[in-house]
Structure formats: structure tokens, C-alpha cells
């Protein structure tokens, strides 16, 4: 299975409209791939809080239409990163879209862990409530977004639901790049799964982005890593490696569930 991660540069010099058209053209160039992955909030930038409202879209809005066409034209599975979705309840959500090669919506995922503590996304957007997996012909994807990477229980939940390839769209800042690489490898090793983590390049809202999108195999080996700038990272991976790894080193079977502290917490 060939996966291409398009590490989009999100800089303020480019309009949302221009970037959308440019990224659609990049997707159309990936006809050689089975799966194409885009980053988090690449239309606005993950830290461009002022744009979340003005550039918000319904799930089936402009980005949906443009990306559905691009997926169909390229004939690829397209994880189109996330959009600032205006839900039917009026709230904003950080929502990822997955398209099939025919351009149909295969899945959508509202980011569960919102970043910013008491500001930014954490107060501007609503939280997703549901884990999302999607069966492709070659593998089962588990979807996650950026800050979710810090919460191992989310990924374990995806694995329990059948995920074999964990796809993370992100807009991760350069200043915490060491966490990004470490956590991507940790999530792959502990879940004996592929991790495809696609971030952004460039600088927006004064936040330099880490780039360094990464693909890690179920043994923790890095199959490919991008540099700091805009780049398409293409990696060939063998989906059978998940079952092989889980068979020869069956650590997931040794989980001890329901552990408690005798007498309660101290
Ligand atoms: O956890 C981090 O360090 C970065 C998270 C983040 O930037 C995000 O979720 O948008």
C-alpha cells in the first residue's frame, strides 16, 4: 500500500481559496498512491483562531466538494485533513474528512481533545464524542487529530475497534517537535500499528510549524520522515506487518484490564 502525506505549508501570504485549489492539484498528482493524507485545519491554520469562524463550513461545504472531486479524479482514498466545521447545532468542530476513491464520504471525525487549555481551540470549538475507524481494502484506519496524540487511551480504543493504521492529521508547533516524533513512535509501538502522522509546514499566527511528518511501522521503525518545509512524503508499507507483529510479539494480549488500587486511591 502506498501512502502519500502532503505536508502543506500554511502561511498567511496565501488565501484560503488559493491554498484549497493548490492542495487539490497536489492531491490530483498522487494517482500513484492508495491513500493520501492532509494535515489538520490546513485551510486556515490550526492556530489562526480568528479565521475559525469566518472560514467555517458545513460538513458538506466548499472544502468537502473540492476534496471529493480531487479524490475521485486521482482515484485515491483521501484523508482530507480537517476543516473548521459549523455543525447543525451552531457549534464549531475540528472535523476530519475521509473520501473513498469514488469521491464519496467514507468517514468523518470530530477531534476529541481540543488544544489550548483555557483559550484557542479549547474554547472556540466543541469536542467530538466518538471514535472513528474506517475499513479500506488493505487496512483499517483509526482517525485522530493533533493533540489527540498525547492521549494513549484514544488510540487503544481505536485498536480495540479494529484499527491497524492510525492516521493523525496535525498542525504541530516546531517548539514541541521532539514530543511529536517520540509520541508518534510510542503510539505505533504500544499499539502494534502503523502511524501516519501528517503535519503542516510554514508559519501562521506567529507559530512556526514543525513539519517532519512521519510514518512509523508497527515495530516502531521510521519508514519515512519529511523535513521542515512543504513536502510530499511517500511511503510503501505492507499492511500484513500489523498481524505479523501482533503474532510474533503478542503484547496486546497481555493487557490487564480493570486494575484498581486496593482500598482506593492514596
Ligand atoms: O500537543 C501539542 O503540543 C500540540 C497540539 C496542537 O497544536 C493542536 O492540537 O492543535
UniProtKB/TrEMBL annotation:
Q: Which UniProt keywords apply?
A: Hydrolase
Question: What organism, scientifically named, is this protein from?
Answer: Streptomyces roseirectus
Which family is this sequence assigned to?
Belongs to the carbon-nitrogen hydrolase superfamily. NIT1/NIT2 family.
What superkingdom heads the lineage?
Answer: Bacteria
A Pfam family that the UniProt record links to this protein: CN_hydrolase
PROSITE patterns under this entry?
CN_HYDROLASE (PS50263), UPF0012 (PS01227)
Q: Name one GO molecular function term.
A: hydrolase activity
This protein is called what?
Carbon-nitrogen family hydrolase
Question: Which residue numbers delimit the CN hydrolase domain?
Answer: 1-239
Amino acid at each position: 500500500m502506498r501512502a502519500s502525506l502532503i505536508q502543506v505549508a500554511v502561511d498567511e501570504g496565501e488565501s484560503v481559496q488559493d491554498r484549497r485549489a493548490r492542495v487539490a492539484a497536489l492531491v490530483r498528482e498522487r494517482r500513484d498512491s492508495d491513500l493520501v493524507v492532509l494535515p489538520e485545519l490546513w485551510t486556515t491554520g490550526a492556530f489562526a483562531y480568528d479565521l475559525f469562524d469566518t472560514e467555517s463550513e458545513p460538513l458538506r461545504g466548499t472544502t468537502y466538494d473540492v476534496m471529493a472531486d480531487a479524490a475521485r479524479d486521482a482515484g485515491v482514498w483521501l484523508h482530507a485533513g480537517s476543516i473548521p466545521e459549523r455543525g447543525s447545532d451552531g457549534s464549531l468542530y475540528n472535523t476530519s474528512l475521509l473520501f473513498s476513491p469514488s469521491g464519496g464520504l467514507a468517514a468523518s471525525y470530530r477531534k476529541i481533545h481540543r488544544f489550548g487549555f483555557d483559550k484557542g481551540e479549547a474554547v472556540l470549538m466543541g469536542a467530538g464524542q466518538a471514535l472513528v475507524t474506517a475499513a479500506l481494502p488493505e487496512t483499517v484506519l483509526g482517525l485522530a487529530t493533533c493533540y489527540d496524540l498525547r492521549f494513549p487511551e484514544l488510540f487503544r480504543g481505536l485498536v480495540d475497534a479494529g484499527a491497524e493504521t492510525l492516521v493523525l492529521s496535525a498542525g504541530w508547533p516546531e517548539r514541541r517537535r521532539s514530543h511529536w516524533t517520540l509520541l508518534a513512535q510510542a503510539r505505533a509501538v504500544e499499539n502494534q500499528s502503523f502511524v501516519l502522522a501528517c503535519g503542516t509546514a510554514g508559519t501562521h499566527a506567529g507559530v512556526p510549524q514543525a513539519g517532519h511528518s512521519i510514518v512509523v511501522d508497527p515495530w516502531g521503525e521510521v519508514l519515512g520522515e519529511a523535513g521542515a518545509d512543504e513536502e510530499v512524503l511517500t511511503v510503501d508499507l505492507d499492511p500484513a506487518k500489523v498481524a505479523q507483529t501482533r503474532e510474533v510479539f503478542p503484547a496486546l494480549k497481555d493487557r490487564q484490564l480493570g486494575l484498581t488500587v486496593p482500598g482506593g486511591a492514596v
